[in-house]
Design brief:
Blueprint lengths: L6 H5 L17 H35 L2 H6 L1 H10 L1 H12 L8 H30 L5 H24 L10 H27 L5 H37 L5 H23 L2 H8 L5 H40 L1
Amino acid sequence: MTAERDPVQEETDGSTDLYDIATWEARSRLDGVSVFIYNAVRTIVRWVVILLALAILLAQLALGGLGAALADLPIAIFILLSIVPALLLAAYVRYADVTTAEPLSLLVGTFALGVLFAGFAGVLNSLFQPLFGTIPLIGSVLFFYFVVGPVEETIKLLAVRLYPYRDGRFDAVIDGAVYGAVAGLGFATIENAIYIAGQVNDPTLANVLTAGGGIAPLRALAGPGHVIYSAIAGYYLGLAKFNPDRAGPIVVKGLLIATLIHATYNTLSAVVPGLISLFVPGLPRIFAFLGFVLVYDTVFGLYLYRKLVRYREAYRGANVGRAAD
């Protein structure tokens, strides 16, 4: 990045002290206090966001019955099984990172923030859904494109921005895809837990097996989507980190792509399986849904895969060039 320079800077040879005229660095005590206050406010805001997210999660555990459900071993097993596809996909994205391996501490922290920040999405979605429910025919579609998609993708990207992005070990564009995928995994985990727990009203083993066995496969199909969407947005966040002069538009582009893919999935998943069943008489709706999700996730999974491959090729090509020099 070439920083913009004041005309005075442009016309001097660097021998003149331009402190507090056209340049600035912390020199005086007041400068130091200013830096301290700025950093303190940033830290406080960051922790307020995290603590608020934690409060929402604790409320879900205590008031929504999620805590009791997680304590039930069969339900917990169904929840774990439901995230296996998303976990495998996130593991592949990490494997595809040709740069230095991302530290476990940053991966775990990002996963935890993905879990925590999902509560924000739940609150905002619940707040705005009634407004769109009054719009006939296209209310749900508008809700997916203007609330669910933007809110959930921004929330997941926030988990990356607040923690690993600020760390010096986030040292390559592709790291954004890795941490985005992990944030998506965290989001999918708590979302699956809420859905599965909500389906099991009767804690008897037979009902748990029946309800859990029905909803867990559906949630397992939904999980990889979250990983794909947020890995794409995360990739652009990584691109933004190393192009600071264009960071804002780059982040917006990533969020737009992720939002459109996410919202389109939500919209089509309510329509396409029914159409498939209509044209293939006798085909259970669950299999129609499975076919739709596999095709949809494959298409955009390949989009993500291509980005990772292009980065890997460029990275290896750059290393070959340096070796030749």
